[in-house]
Model the fold of this input.
Amino acid sequence: MVEKLKIIGGNSLKGEVSISGAKNSVLKLMAAAILSKGETVIHNVPELTDVNIMLRVIEELGVKTKYDKIAKTVAIDATDISSITAKYELVSKMRASFIILGALVSRCKEAIVALPGGCAIGERRVDFHIKGLEALGAEIKIENGYVHANAQKLTGTDIYLDIPSVGATENLMLAAILADGATRIQNAAQEPEIVDLANFLNAMGADVSGAGTSEIVINGVKQEDLHPIEYTTIPDRIEAGTYMAAIIATKGKGIIRNVLPSHLTFYNSKLIKMGANIKLIEPTVIEVSCNQKLNPVNIVTQPYPGFPTDLQAIAMAMLTTADGVSIVTESLYENRFMQVPELRRMGADIHQERNHALIRGVDKLTGANVKASDLRAGASLIIAALMAEGESDIEALHHIDRGYELFETKFANLGANIVRYNDESDILTVNNAEVTNKGSINASI
Done:
């Protein structure tokens, strides 16, 4: 049975929303937790399908886990590891689980991890991961779709990444933790999630410096130097950026709680150029608002601290009704304009040529039946539906459930007319309350 979202657009979003823990951080912290024997507890863990997949990956290694969805905590006891294999059935569902390779090589000196395969937003190669592990002394064979790594002795070395790959930086950080001597990763990714991972590892007893810059140094420690910890995940900057966009695009006003504004500096500068107002209320609380038609802007996605590729589709949705012409350039991934055909179905005027999209602002979008192709494209369609005149139905919610915790509930609390329903039933649900598919959505909120 297919679940869908039904949205009636036109409401200005108002109210408050609290941001969950960062998906792109917590998944890596869960993998890193297997480096230490004993029980590590991670707080501020969002309830997402990706989190459940990562739990299954580490559980199949023999690691004990406890997930308290109410308390938002995951306990991981990696005292005993009985398997070194991460199977294709799980790794193929979520590319981020490939980071288990570095953790296993570090802890167990060998690993068998499935190659993650293709991705809806384009190919994401893993050769940087492999070359870096080989530089550390690992012997790598690729057979039958699996990476077989043997590393009875890892030795610190200098590694230069051709591009600042987040995944490669993280995998090599984990692999180098127990290496003999110092490892220096040059042209490293600088994302806040990298810093969060480094802070987590240092709290565990590792010696990592330079995270957040282009050069990270890992001084290898001994297994007995590592110990279990309690750690709280940073807020999700992409989720924060999504709700900010929705409030601004609908000419609303709202409070965003549990956000680190410094993680969104470049993004915020573009929103302000569009005509948004962003006010710092407290160190982790901002107020966003907009009372005008948005101005056009040009955007080029770049590695952090540049404009985030994960917010490109969201920004494009906002610009579909801007007062003029905008150009969005996707410089990091091919096939990351998969939201374009669906936005056109809603009346957007977008001309795409390779990795460039020219967006001519229209007077209004209109509701339509659309389908999410990936996580961020799905979020862009929600924002477009909230902006649009009339009713929209959005399919393929499993993509959105990967990265947004309780998103329909959070949007409903901001005043959105939004419900999740099953297309084979007349029953809709919002905030766990049932209403009929034939009635007014307003009546349920």
Summary: The chain is about 30% helix and 25% strand. Confidence is low (pLDDT under 50) at residues 430-445. Residues 301 and 307 are 5 Å apart (CA to CA).
